[in-house]
Amino acid sequence: MQVSSTEKLPVYQVIGPKVRIHWNYTELPETEDYPSGWSCEEACVAKTADRASLISAIIRARYTVDDEFAAINNGGEDYQSLLDFRVEAKALADGWLAALA
Q1: Residue 75 — φ and ψ, nearest 5°?
Q2: 28 in Cβ contact with 39 (< 8 Å)
Q3: CA distances to 4, 8, 36 from 61, in Å
Q4: Which of 64, 89, 91, 101 lies at 20 to 30 Å from 42 by C-alpha?
Q5: pLDDT, tens digit, for every residue of 6-51?
């Protein structure tokens, strides 16, 4: 899911029993209607989730199951983008688990 904020959100943001994981930040310029800010992708999961659940939540924030199957079946760039993102999702999950240790 894509979210926007007037400030750059932390990579790991705990709110109650959930952790919101942010990545892929883009700085947004000020416009006539909106102040400057930040946009990023976000996954929300229980802060006690295991590694597999964290990875799944991060991947589902960008890809539906149908999107994932389509990328696999399309091959080429679509498949490589999925594989690259899976590596990023694992790194984000591992970062959260390391922060808990």
Answers
A1: 70, -160
A2: yes
A3: 15, 19, 24
A4: 101
A5: 999 999 999 999 999 999 999 999 988 888 999 999 999 999 999 9
- What would the two tokens of residue 20 be? 């919101």
> Do 45 and 22 meet the contact criterion of CB atoms below 8 Å apart?
no
Model confidence, pTM: 0.91
Domain count across the chain: 1
Single out the residue of 62, 57, 59, 31 nearest to residue 44, CA to CA.
Answer: 57
Q: Which domain holds residue 6?
A: 2-100
Handedness of CA 31, 32, 33, 34 (dihedral sign): positive
Can you tell me the distance from the alpha carbon of 91 to that of 80, in angstroms, rounded to the nearest whole number? Answer: 17
